[in-house]
């Protein structure tokens, strides 16, 4: 698969995460968190985009979104 096409696909998946992060069901939040980690791990180019998304989610009005964003940021900080 072409790298540009792969980046576009991963960016599309980030938009799916952002769109569904407000869902307060446990497994939805868990899967959104796992998707963010997988995208950042798979493509270091998009790691910054994932971190930006996590910051937006962490400052969101939705409790579920805040939990997903802060969890990702906390895990990233521990890895650094």
Can you describe what's shown?
- This protein is mainly α and 80 residues long.
- The chain is 80% helix and 0% strand.
- The mean pLDDT is 87.
Any descriptors?
single chain; 80 residues; mainly alpha; 4 helices; 80% helix
List the helices and strands and how they pair.
Layout lengths: L2 H18 L5 H17 L4 H12 L4 H17 L1
The count of helical stretches stands at 4
Order of helices and strands: HHHH
According to DSSP, the number of beta strands is 0
Q: Could you tell me the strand content as a percent range?
A: under 5%
Largest sheet: none
Structural class determined from secondary elements? mainly alpha
Q: Cα-atom Rg, whole angstroms?
A: 12 Å
Percentage of residues in helical conformation = over 70%
Shape: globular
Cα distance spanning the termini: 30 Å
* Overall mean confidence score, pLDDT: 87
> What are the segments in which pLDDT stays under 50 over at least 5 consecutive residues?
none
Please give a quick description of this structure.
This protein is mainly alpha-helical and 80 residues long. The protein has helices spanning 3-20, 26-42, 47-58, 63-79. Helix content is 80%, strand content 0%.
